[in-house]
């Protein structure tokens, strides 16, 4: 059995950043990174791909380019974690021992989480930027009018703002195409508000009203019927209150019983339900019950596992009460690295603490973006320098340029190389 000082599961943003920063801080460390994919994706740009504003091929690079020098790349799937014996099992490379484990395998799409989703997705106008943004763009170009429905599941998802980003872009595209007056743009979400941070929600609510977008809170998707092209929702409040009223005839909304709502669609974009990989869900390092069931336990500030002190987690798989974004990982990685190195050295944590920072670059149209930055408890946490230059709660062309050009450059050249 091969053995390493540090084993990292996952070669996405979190795994690569941690590996690169560890190697920069302590080149002698014996590190293994377990990652089966030979390609690395810059997924934040998939929103723009879905709107025809970015080339899909520009979001893909070879994984080998980003494996830090001196790190052993195990091109395989992790399929088991035994934290009692400090062992990771793999699909075909045998067992791998570790002194310290960093868990960052990301999450997986649960296409069976909504009945009808697997059968519907990728054809007849049912699309998702999470799985195939090029098909989303195809759907937008072929759309002739009718109901354009945008929705998301009740599960945690990566980049919680992404389902509404493509909705704003699609609405803008329909205007440019001259079919907006023939189109009902509907955003249906299980959430109670358009965005959790009040300062940014104020701007988004104004946009929704000005652009005549149907906003449907408390709508949890329960079934897709591809034969009738209808999506079913459970309205999560008891009955329909005065805010919702009766079914809206303009979009041919239908009420069935006390809580079921049915909306026909001509185009449907959704974020599929998402979950931790099965080997994580069945592992002792995952929450076994409660609202975080299946996600990896981690102290919300140190990112250390509460039951297994030599295990750390970051990124989408960690049960942290903040948004699952690359921006969050950018702040998590240096904290994790500092704590891991200090643990090796002295047996304790460093002075660094992760305060829940995440950001959501909310693209609200072509050439327009609101940069929502926040931390735990939905507290605004905007960059002080940027905030002096501009009001990041408002739509800005400069923020669009940051999204399209600045952030991809920083990702490939700084984040993945351990320089930030």
Describe the structure.
- The protein is α/β, with parallel strands linked by helices and 420 residues long.
- The protein folds into 2 domains: 2-107 and 276-354 and 405-415, FAD/NAD(P)-binding domain (3-Layer(bba) Sandwich); 117-273, FAD/NAD(P)-binding domain (3-Layer(bba) Sandwich), CATH 3.50.50.
- It has helices at 13-25, 46-50, 117-120, 133-142, 162-177, 198-210, 278-281, 326-346, 384-389, 397-415, and strands at 2-9, 31-34, 39-41, 60-62, 72-74, 78-82, 87-90, 95-103, 108-109, 126-127, 146-151, 183-188, 214-216, 219-225, 230-235, 254-256, 260-264, 267-270, 274-275, 311-313, 358-365, 368-375, 379-380.
- The strands form 6 sheets. Strands 1, 2, 5, 6, 7, 8 and 20 form a 7-stranded mixed β-sheet that branches. Strands 10-18-11-12-13 form a 5-stranded parallel β-sheet, with helices on one face. A 4-stranded antiparallel β-sheet has the order 14-15-17-16, with no helix packed on it.
- The longest helix is centred in the last third of the chain and has 21 residues, at 326-346.
- The radius of gyration is 22 Å and the shape is globular.
- It starts with a strand and ends in a 5-residue tail after the last helix.
């Amino acid at each position: 059995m091969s053995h390493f000082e540090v084993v990292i599961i996952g070669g996405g943003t979190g795994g690569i950043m941690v590996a690169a920063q560890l190697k920069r801080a302590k080149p002698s460390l014996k590190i293994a990174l377990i990652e089966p994919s030979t390609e690395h994706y810059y997924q934040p740009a998939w929103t723009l791909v879905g709107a025809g504003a970015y080339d899909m091929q520009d979001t893909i690079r070879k994984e080998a380019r980003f494996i830090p020098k001196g790190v052993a790349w195990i091109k395989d799937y992790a399929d088991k974690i035994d934290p009692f014996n400090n062992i990771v099992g793999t699909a075909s490379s045998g067992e791998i021992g570790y002194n310290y484990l960093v868990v960052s395998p990301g999450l997986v799409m649960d296409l069976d989480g909504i009945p009808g989703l697997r059968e519907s997705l990728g054809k007849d106008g049912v699309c998702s930027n999470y799985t195939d943004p090029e098909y989303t763009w195809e759907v937008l170009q072929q759309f002739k009018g009718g109901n354009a429905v945008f929705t998301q599941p009740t599960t945690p998802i990566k980049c919680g703002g992404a389902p509404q980003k493509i909705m704003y872009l699609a609405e803008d595209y329909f205007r440019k195409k001259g079919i907006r007056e023939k189109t009902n743009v509907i955003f249906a979400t299980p959430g109670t508000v358009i965005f959790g941070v009040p300062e940014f929600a104020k701007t988004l609510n104004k946009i929704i009203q000005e652009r005549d977008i149907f906003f449907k809170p408390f709508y949890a998707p329960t079934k897709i019927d591809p034969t009738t092209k209808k999506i079913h929702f459970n309205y999560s409040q008891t009955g329909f209150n005065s805010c919702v009223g009766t079914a809206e005839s303009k979009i041919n909304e239908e009420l069935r019983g006390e809580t079921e709502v049915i909306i026909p669609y001509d185009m449907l974009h959704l974020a599929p339900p998402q979950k931790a990989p099965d080997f994580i869900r069945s592992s002792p390092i995952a929450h076994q019950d409660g609202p975080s069931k299946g996600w990896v336990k981690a102290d919300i500030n140190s990112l250390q596992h509460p039951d297994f002190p030599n295990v750390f987690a970051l990124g989408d798989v960690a049960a942290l009460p903040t948004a699952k974004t690359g921006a969050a990982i950018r702040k998590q990685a240096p904290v994790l690295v500092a704590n891991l190195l200090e643990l090796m050295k002295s047996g304790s944590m460093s002075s660094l603490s992760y305060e829940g920072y995440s950001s959501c670059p909310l693209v609200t149209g072509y050439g327009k973006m609101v940069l929502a930055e926040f931390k735990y408890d939905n507290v605004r946490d905007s960059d002080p320098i940027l905030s002096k230059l501009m009001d990041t709660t408002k739509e800005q062309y400069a923020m669009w340029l940051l999204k399209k050009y600045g952030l991809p450059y920083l990702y490939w050249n700084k984040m993945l190389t351990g320089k930030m």
